[in-house]
Amino acid sequence: MQQLERSSSTPGVRRSLNTRGKNLIQILISAGFLAAILLLGSLLPEQAAHTSLSERNLVPGAGHFFGTDWLGRDMFNRTLKGLAYSIQVGLTAAVCSSLIALLVGLLAAAGRRMDQALSWFIDLFMSVPHLVSLILIAFAFGGGAKGVIVAIACTHWPQLARVIRADMLQLQSADYIQVSRRLGKSRGYVALHHMLPHLVPQLLVGLLLVFPHAILHEAAITFLGLGLSPQQPAIGIILSESMKYLSAGMWWLAFFPGLALTLTVLAFDTLGHGIRSYSDPIKLER
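The structure corresponding to this sequence follows.
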């Protein structure tokens, strides 16, 4: 008993417990922030589109925290609605991208030739700049939400696929995998029933880390006019529309949506790193 107490009070164990506690706090704060955005954004569909010509171009104040635009629309409501919509589009694109990465990672276990071909394919995709690929794919699919989702899904999978492929190569040498193959199980059976369960945590963390890039690139191509429709209250649309009014001194039209987008991206990035560190803090410290 004394040895257990002594071992639990060693600096390494205490440092690990403190790290897990800090990571848990970060996870809760980030998840609460994102949940609040989604909840408030879903509750403000009409308020975000409400116009009042008598309240046009108001600076931020008590009545309108983020001010109003040229049509008298409350920028606080528009920003929340835009963030909620951008999160939905970005999350859908990140899920599709992660599934592509998972499929590529599983196929890498099919054999050496398949692994070499997929490695070459991944390197080829990563050699092309993201923004160029995004613009070309979104333009090819006619823009809109479908074009944005397809463009992001087709350009954000290679890095996660590399990670999953590396995990697959390590799992192939595991004892229980070798035993399963000697028992006559097929490669597909081994990949789906023995390897896939070990890849799910890595896949979820990878999805959360891909998502901030998905939101930023969705806003970027929408800002350039190749993304979502102007009728959609996305952050990229809000930022694009506000550019023409910056010279008139209406700084709040771009400042607050841009700040909200930055905080949202940081929250998702913190959530992803926090979950990865919380699941294995000792490995991360090493």
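Confidence is low (pLDDT under 50) at residues 1-8.
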